[in-house]
Amino acid sequence: MKYKYFDLTEFDSPDEPGSGKHMQHEFLKMLDLAREEAGIPFKITSGFRTDAYNKDLLKRGYKASKNSSHLSGCAADIACSSSEKRIKIVKALIKVGYTRLGIAKSFIHVDNDPSKSDAIWLY
Fold first, then answer.
1. How big is the CA angle at 50 (ends 48 and 51), to the nearest 5 degrees?
2. Burial of 1 by CB count in 10 Å (0-12 exposed, 13-18 middle, 19+ buried)?
3. How far apart are CA 18 and CA 60, in angstroms?
4. In 6, 16, 92, 111, which residue has its Cα 20 to 30 A from 33's Cα atom?
5. Widest Cα–Cα separation across the chain
6. pLDDT digits (tens, 9 = 90+) for 10-63
7. Residue 54, exposed/middle/buried by CB under 10 A (0-12, 13-18, 19+)?
């Protein structure tokens, strides 16, 4: 599939080139719509994760979940460097229908994992 604002390589796990192809189409379609709505670029800092990479993050002390939605290709982290960008991104994500957001100082996590409850959390 082709997306207006994203290339699948942006979602590759660092340990597996080409793994962005494992991202869920519906997730990426919604993310493309959110990018259009926000009117600003979305820099993806984490997309698909292999099990090995996710375990490595846990070993290194990152707040990665053992059952991370990144493992099933329905999550991404978007870089965010200011309050102005944060509100634009969050409003756009909610407008297109995302109901799971994690907000950190330097990024916003978004997922549409059907096995998890709606939530907004802080890192």
1. 130
2. exposed
3. 24
4. 16
5. 37
6. 999 999 999 999 999 999 999 999 999 999 999 999 999 999 999 999 999 988
7. buried
